Amino acid sequence: MHLISTFAFAFLQAFHFINAEDFGYDGVRGPTYWGERYQECRGKHQSPIDINILRVKQVALPDISFVGFDDSIDDVHVTNNGHTVLIEVDNEPHPRVSGGPLDGDYIFSQMHFHWGDNDTFGSEDKINHRSFPMELHMVFFKEEYKTAQEAVKHSDGLTVLAFFYELDRHKHPAYDDITAALANVTEPHTTVVMSHPFSILNILPYDLNRYFTYRGSLTTPPCSEVVIWLDFEQPVRLAHDQIEAFRELRSATGKIRHNFRPIQPIGDRVVFYNVDNKYFNYNEVDNPDEDNTQRRKRGHNRSNVTLAKDSPRTALNAV
Ligand SMILES: [Zn+2]
Q1: Residues 84, 86, 91, CA angle at the centre, nearest 5°?
Q2: Ligand 1 centre and the CA of 69: distance in Å?
Q3: Structural domains of the chain, count
């Protein structure tokens, strides 16, 4: 357990920096100036990007294996690091992912959020120029590199599972424990342990089959180009108040009203769009009167979305 804590700490050093004043999102510490101190922030394969659905390459990748995502995790630490809120776990073994575009196994390191001043923007990646009010990044490092610190030296060192949020009239009950914890870490460099066990699967959307994937970078300095991004198409739905709770967090210089990096050039990169034709699109049902609880129940019964493989419905016209 101590070893893992060391991994996590080393990773924080690499990914978010110890000194909260190293970078920010406004003024002379803002994204425009990151490249002056961190050369890689001027690279050609940076994140985030705006994904143009007309330019993606449709693929049917192997299924992703999500291991430990439905485990009940006891020791969940919630930390305000001055840039965002981090969620880390002590439980062994850590959750892991493999399959999809990934070669090998990737071990969970931490997750964190990016948001905006109001509900009209805040995500980092965009889909067809659309911003979402918030985005979740679940960061994993490649097992063969042993530590996150070592992994960030390799072009396939990290994978980030990214999930977008959109507004719902109803609260998402699985997020109540997170927003309750936020109230106890409003000051920078504070940590609390979550009061109830936590299951990763409960905070994710139910369609984990449709996603975009591309090669990019960390979206904070040092902007290392070491990330295989997976952006899941189906957003998680939260109530306005649940998103607003994140905007109460403070950095050393005041409230963290926004913490997303602007869009970077896509350059010569190709974005792949994974569509498994066995599955029907969630867009088929979007009943505004259905609350999150009903949706989650439906989501846990994924057999009801199975369709024949020769469905004439194609990925692009389904979006
Ligand atoms: Zn992030």
Answers
A1: 180
A2: 19
A3: 1
